[in-house]
Design brief:
Layout: E1 9-13, H1 23-33, E2 42-47, E3 53-60, E4 63-70, E5 86-89, H2 91-98
Parallel strand pairs: 1-2
Antiparallel strand pairs: 1-5, 2-3, 3-4
Length: 114
C-alpha cells in the first residue's frame, strides 16, 4: 500500500518519538510541534529512541493509515537539534532510511526524472 502512495511530501520527525503514542497523539505532534497540516498529502515518519522501530502516519480521504515497521537493525535517523523539528526528504531518501542506509548517499546515481 505504501508504494501506491505517489507524489506526496515526506517529513521525518528528527530525534526520537515515543512510539506508544496513538494516531491522534502523533497527529497532534505534526500539527502543534511541527506546524504542518496533518491532513495534507504527506507522509509523517517517526522513529523510536533505539532507532529500531518506525511509524508512518498518512491521511487517506476519510481516515489515517498508520504503518509500523520493526527492524532487527538500526535506522540511520537524523538527530534532533533543540526543539522538535520535521525534516522534508524525498521518497528516495525515505527508501534509503527504510533500507538501513543514511539520508545522504554520495555514491548513488542521480535520480532520473522523466
Amino acid at each position: 500500500m505504501l508504494n501506491q502512495i505517489t507524489s506526496c511530501a515526506v517529513y521525518l520527525a528528527c530525534g526520537s518519538t515515543d512510539l506508544r503514542k496513538s494516531i491522534d497523539a502523533l497527529a497532534a505532534v505534526v500539527k502543534y510541534s511541527f506546524d504542518l497540516d496533518v491532513l495534507s498529502n504527506s507522509l509523517f515518519v517517526f522513529c523510536n529512541r533505539d532507532r529500531n522501530e518506525i511509524k508512518i502516519l498518512y491521511w487517506d480521504h476519510n481516515g489515517f493509515w498508520l504503518y509500523c515497521r520493526l527492524d532487527s537493525g538500526r535506522f540511520m535517523w537524523p538527530r534532533q537539534n533543540g526543539d522538535p523539528s520535521a525534516m522534508a526528504v524525498s521518497r528516495r531518501q525515505l527508501q534509503w532510511l527504510l533500507d538501513g542506509l543514511a539520508l545522504e548517499q554520495h555514491k548513488a546515481h542521480p535520480e532520473v526524472l522523466a
